[in-house]
TrEMBL record:
GO CC, any one term: glycine cleavage complex
One Pfam family hit: GCV_T
GCVT N-terminal domain ranges (all copies): 10-270
Highest taxon, organism lineage: Bacteria
Organism: Arthrobacter cheniae
Keyword Methyltransferase: yes
Recorded catalytic activity of this chain's protein: N(6)-[(R)-S(8)-aminomethyldihydrolipoyl]-L-lysyl-[protein] + (6S)-5,6,7,8-tetrahydrofolate = N(6)-[(R)-dihydrolipoyl]-L-lysyl-[protein] + (6R)-5,10-methylene-5,6,7,8-tetrahydrofolate + NH4(+)
Sections of the chain in a coiled coil: none
InterPro entries xrefs: GcvT (IPR006223), GcvT/YgfZ/DmdA (IPR028896), GcvT/YgfZ_C (IPR029043), GcvT_bac (IPR022903), GcvT_C (IPR013977), GCVT_N (IPR006222), TrmE/GcvT-like (IPR027266)
This protein's name: Aminomethyltransferase
Endpoints of the signal sequence: none
Length: 377
């Protein structure tokens, strides 16, 4: 355990629950509390409680906040209604992905930008630099903000047990990729309904100084619903089944949005110039040289990140994430492959440490729950 790793405000509670820790993005985070398979299935069947306080929270406010974000990010943030959210990317001038993030519009002149843990300081600084010339303020609130997620089919029921009666209807009616302010267990919370698991779920933003009280209350209220605290191992297997990218695996500075399948996120119809536009706009009209695809193993062995994808003895791509799917019962993976081998049904081999194993290109997400209130991240 690195002495330089940061701890969230819930660290002592994780220790008390017997969590095994791992360093993630410079933070000591719970990897699991018990079997990662049990935690995975708990989220699919009931509900899991996650500490996501390592994520960043950057408040962008001021008269030109919307115009600024349209310049800083590749999407059209100015059209988001108050109370709604949008998944987007922040790219560099060369079109590489600095981070993928979700932005919530809190008011006409205020937005909350949520970057990934390891990228939070980089994104906050990049936004500050890009804000030059705009009448806007960029405030990194990551240190004083905690983020807790409740994910799974019982997530709504857990929150209703924590809510005031007058907030019950608001919670039930909250749409996917939307956010609202409520009280949970007597604490003011910005409640969002997004998620990274493929299940229904909520994110709870609140002050880090009171997060422990909400964590304890959620565990107590969730007991009758089968809720358990869950770690990053389950979060990773859940997001992979849901076909969602992880920065540093499917996304990075060497990746452009189109090869990652995120071309629709790049809005070239907006009149605003944006960082990377001169490179990204021409790419929208051409076939990428490689594509991110889903793979299903023909056998039982799993592909792992970094393994070569091979056709006719020649490497044509690289696995970015892979594991045995607990829900589906067979191994799945995400991989970048040359576009000539990206069509659904294409048969490839993955070099599993010197032993080629057959895989087939299949659609993503690998897992989709029956009802979803909006597009997946």
């Amino acid at each position: 355990m690195s002495e330089e790793s940061k701890h969230t405000s819930l660290y002592t509670r994780h220790k008390a629950h017997g969590a095994a820790f791992t360093d993630f993005g410079g933070w000591q985070m719970p990897l699991k509390y018990r079997s990662e398979l049990e935690e995975h299935h708990t989220v699919r069947r009931a509900a899991g409680l996650f500490d996501l306080s390592h994520m960043g929270e950057v408040l962008v406010s001021g008269p030109e906040a919307a115009a600024f974000l349209n310049y800083a990010l590749v999407s059209n943030l100015a059209v988001i209604p108050v109370g709604k959210a949008k998944y987007s990317l922040i790219c560099n001038a060369e079109g590489g992905v600095i981070d993928d993030l979700i932005t919530y519009r809190l008011a006409e002149d205020a937005f909350l930008v949520v970057p990934n843990a390891s990228n939070a300081p980089v994104v906050a600084e990049e936004l500050r630099v890009r804000a030059a010339g705009f009448d806007t303020v960029v405030e990194d609130q990551s240190e004083t903000t905690a983020l807790v997620a409740v994910q799974g089919p019982a997530a709504e029921a857990v929150l209703l047990d924590l809510a005031r009666p007058e907030d019950a209807g608001t919670i039930r009616e909250l749409k996917y990729y939307a956010a609202v302010r409520v009280e949970l267990s007597g604490l003011p919370v910005l409640l969002a309904r997004t998620g990274y698991t493929g299940e229904d779920g909520f994110e709870l933003f609140l002050g880090s100084d009171v997060a422990g009280r909400l964590w304890d209350a959620a565990l107590q209220a969730g007991e009758v619903h089968g809720l358990l605290p869950c770690g990053l191992a389950a979060r990773d297997s859940l997001r992979l089944e849901a076909g969602m990218p992880l920065y540093g695996h499917e996304l990075g500075l060497e990746t452009n949005p189109f090869e990652a399948g995120l071309g629709p996120v790049v809005n070239t119809k907006k009149t605003d110039d944006f960082v990377g536009r001169s490179v990204l706009e021409p790419l929208k009209a051409v076939e990428p040289t490689r594509r991110l695809v889903g793979l299903r193993a023909v056998g039982r062995r799993s592909a792992r990140a970094g393994y070569d994808v091979v056709v006719d003895g020649v490497p044509v791509g690289t696995v970015t994430s892979g594991l045995p799917s607990p829900t589906l019962g067979y191994p799945v993976a995400l991989a970048y492959v040359e576009s000539a081998h990206a069509a659904l049904g294409t048969e490839v081999l993955v070099d599993l440490r010197g032993r080629p194993e057959p895989f087939t290109v299949i659609p993503t997400p690998f897992y989709r729950r029956e009802t979803l209130a909006g597009p997946a991240k």
